[in-house]
Amino acid sequence: MTQPTGRRPRTDAQRNRAHILAVAEQGFTETGVEVSMDAIAKRAGVGAGTLYRHFPNREELIAAVLADRGPDLRAEQADIEAQETDSRAALDRWLTAVSAWMQAFEGLPEPLRTAHREQTSPLAPSCQEVIATTDRFLVAAQRDGHARPGVRGVDLYLGTLAAAWAGGADSADDSVEPGLREMLRRGWATSTGRE
User: Fold this and answer.
1) What are the φ/ψ torsions at residue 189 (nearest 5 degrees)?
2) Residue 186: CA atoms inside 13 Å, Cβ hemisphere, count?
3) Domain named HTH tetR-type: which ranges (predicted)?
4) pLDDT digits over 185-195, tens only?
């Protein structure tokens, strides 16, 4: 008898996956994204083979945790679009949300940087979606004269990523990341509202 294709995963496999994601989120929160895959498997009480069946590498696991348990950027985007009538404020609020997403776990900026460069990374689609949304908010602000022409969404994404990375450095204090984001804001925002 032929098995139907596209069948749903078994209930125990779904339960294992959800449990692994919960344990990985806890590990990322406590230790950062560099926590070993073996440590996650051990904490989850599953064999390494089970972990790797669900998530073949760390980037797959990070992408799944961000999608399942990370900050909900789509919800934030919808809130901004519903609440903000000023395109400069909307872009600024979006970049704040992106910064929080990039800092959801210690060490996350590095895999995001790699994903931007290596389009085969499991994190690359999320990065591209964030860049595309950033571009939409930016174009609206440019149209209204609140953002300088020539600035691109990818520039703001990478600038925000750089600030998030620097804010996570061992030598950084709490003022580094917001200070760098303010410098970035001064680079993209117009001073008069029209240029």
Assistant:
1) -85, 145
2) 6
3) 14-73
4) 999 999 754 44
Q: What CA–CA distance (Å, rounded) separates 28 from 106?
A: 7
CA gap 169, 172 in Å, rounded: 5
Terminal Cα-to-Cα distance of the chain (whole angstroms)? 70
Tell how far CA 151 is from the center of its chain.
21
Question: How far apart are the C-alpha atoms of 143 and 22, rounded to whole Å?
Answer: 43
Beta carbons within 10 angstroms of residue 149's beta carbon: 8
What stretch of H or E contains 14? helix 11-31
Output the CA torsion sign for 95, 160, 22, 129: positive
> What domains are there in the chain, each with its CATH number?
11-69 (1.10.10.60), 73-188 (1.10.357)
Tens-place pLDDT, residues 77-93: 999 999 999 999 999 99
Neighbours of 110 (CB within 10 A): 14
Helical H segments across 32-105, by residue range: 37-44, 48-54, 58-69, 73-83, 87-102
DSSP for 146-171, written as a single string: SB-TT--HHHHHHHHHHHHHHHTSTT
d(CA 6, CA 13): 15
Helix (H, G, I), strand (E, B) or coil at 1: coil
